[in-house]
Design brief:
This protein is of the alpha+beta class. It has seven helices and 14 strands. The strands form three sheets. It has a six-stranded mixed sheet with strand order 3-4-2-1-14-13. The chain is globular. It starts with a strand and ends with a strand.
Length: 258
Amino acid sequence: MKIYSWNVNGFRSVLKQGFLDWLQKADPDVVNLQEIRAEWLQVDLAARLEIEQKYDVCWFPATIKKGYAGSATFSRRGLPFSHVRGLGIEDYDAEGRMVVSTHPDFTLIAGYFPNASEGLVRLPFKRRFSSDLVRIVQERHARGEKLVVVGDLNVAPQEIDLANPDQNRRTAGFTDEEREDFQKYLAAGLVDVFRERNPGRKGLYSWWSARGGARSRNIGWRIDIFLVSRDLVPKVRNAQIHADVLGSDHCPISLELG
């Protein structure tokens, strides 16, 4: 099974930049999108029909503000997935943060993790989200569930995960607090499978600033991440970053389960 995650930075925008061609070529079994920034009915009808021919669509836009945040999960028709919008916590669900998709073999918790924002004004909100998600992971593990947690996590876990760590010590996405919270995901029994399989490899990024030609110079951050329950790790065949795919300031990442 091929699972993809992509912060598209506006679904209607990425549609104009070849999203449907990418979807056909990548041929994911499941894909979660972040920052969809639209209602489903605002999306071009022909595109909606093409997607719905192949996928069950769980579209989860923000309700607090139009054109803000939101996430969506597409699962291939015929696969035994059931989808639930949100974590059941209003503060996050109003922003369309997460979709929970249940399969007989695992549960996919996927979406758009909060950004600490300029001046770290949302760092307390982000830390509360992380604490609640750790609790949810622990509860589901206690029930025997195997999890895949994925999305734009909005944190680079280690110095190796961004090009200029020394210049970003108090920048959103690389604060000590956010990195400490990431470690709590690992302590709860999740594994950063991509980094575990690529130890010490530099220059592996999934987001680049739109300023100063950062992408062409590969001055980026690895903030789009798959976390997998340790009991599910033996089923992971591959984990990749698809830095060649354009259309957003992020690129897709993928996980293959066997």
